[in-house]
Amino acid sequence: MIVLAFVLYFLMLLGVGWLTGRNATKDSYFLGNRQSIWWLVAFGMLSDSMSGVSFISVPGDVYNSNFFYMQTVMGYVLGYVVIAFVLLPLYYKLQLTSIYSYLGQRFEKDHQRTGAAYFVLSRLVGSAARLCLTAVILQKYLFDAMGFPFWASVAIIIILILTYTIKGGIRTLVFTDAIQSAFLVGGLVLCVWALLKGLPGKDIFQWVQTSGHSNWFNWDFGSKTYFWKHFLGGAFICITMTGMDQNMMQKNLSCRSLKDAQKNILSYGSVVFIVNMIFLSLGALMLQYLFQHHIPMPLKPDGTADTDAIFPLLVLGKHLGLAAAVAFILGLAAATFSSADSVLTTLTTSTYIDFLHLDNSSKFNEKQKKNIRNFLHIGFAFLLLGLILFIRALNNDSLITTVLMVAGFTYGPLLGLFAFGILTKMKPGGTGAIVVCLVAPFYTFLISKIPPSAIGGYKFGFELLLINGMLTFIGLTLVSILGSRKKAVN
């Protein structure tokens, strides 16, 4: 039954891809002819922003961190306001297709390529690591039963994604992501319902409140989950990983007007807040279910709680029934594949515009440009497949964690570059700026390794992104001042 539901799910996506990809043009691929319906984009961005890792990890982490994650989500809300009223007006004013074109217009082409390079690196490596983690879960509970080896199942997934995205691009993704968001939310709701069936006598609010894990706020300054670290970190994570990320912004730029795009991002922020509340409530309910039914907590080899295993254990361990198992698999698939399918289109867009500068090139005719675009799209699909298989072959969970951490550090230079362009009128030289953007993440990494005992017990958390951006901003300022002095001397 689970296998059949999975197959039907992908057939539906292929059908939508075929319908929306008919008569698609360059404008359809890149920006959906700027005719996307804002509320459809807003709902579709939900599944795009949540990987399969977060689908499993956010509910499970309630065991260790209560509802402290909502401090970060509250920061997101502030970030969405900044995106709506600072970044989107800038992008629409310049009629951008790739947001990194702003860096080329404000500074030099080298800055545009630097910003795009960080995006390509972050999204390609990060998506490969996240997709690998969730593919392992799907392999264990789904594809092993079908007799497919890991490499074949991942290859099939990538090829299917490639099939329904290559023609329609953004126009297709607006619809497929909305459908996948519906499956994501529907899967969550069904799992909550299944848990409540096994927890009679109280409503959801009572079960959450009595779980002992429903505290929202942490005021311990030295803790990684201290309120202001999470809140400000969440705001800047949102601004950079949504507002300065081509993968998240390209669908926003496909809306009919700036006003529609602003309604989209603010509505999306509201939906993100509500859905994360459901995720965390699900986590509290899962802990209550384990306790009430005397189910042992899953453990890691070192004896500590394996919180990522709680959700699969309850749903796929036949504790909650077949409907919940199907809902889990489809919700996990929606969260995983929505982010993967968008990546292929947006990596192609950034390479096509930021590195090859083919958007306004007269060297090739439209047919040749389309062939190049298709070649890039297919190339990134196989590169993503190769990275997933490489990560899986190493079979090292700590390596995957490191890969995800490195991908996170690369957003700091984007924050610094955009902030410097918006907040100052200075213009750093290309070579100096590139050096700064390479050095800032390295110094941020060194700062993150300072022992808490050396700084009064303080533990770094999400604020590392802000530190990374500040180091980049300061470095760009120094490079600009030195460049101005050299020009004055000459």
Describe the protein in words.
- With 490 residues, this protein is mainly alpha-helical.
- It folds into two domains: 2-397, Sodium/glucose cotransporter (Up-down Bundle), CATH 1.20.1730.10; 410-490, no CATH class.
- The chain is built from 21 helices and no strands.
- It has helices at 2-21, 26-31, 38-49, 52-60, 62-65, 69-93, 101-106, 109-146, 150-165, 170-197, 204-209, 227-243, 246-252, 258-292, 310-316, 322-355, 366-394, 397-409, 411-423, 430-448, 463-489.
- Helix 12 (227-243) packs across helix 19 (411-423) and helix 12 packs across helix 21.
- It is globular.
- The termini are far apart.
- The mean pLDDT is 85.
CATH class type of the largest domain: Mainly Alpha
Strand-residue proportion:
under 5%
Give the mean pLDDT.
Answer: 85
| Helicity level | over 70%
Radius of gyration: 23 Å
Summarize the biggest pleated sheet: none
- CATH topology (level 3) name of the largest domain: Sodium/glucose cotransporter
Which H/E pattern describes the elements? HHHHHHHHHHHHHHHHHHHHH
- By CATH, the superfamily of the largest domain comes out as Sodium/glucose cotransporter
* Unreliable stretches covering 5 or more consecutive residues: none
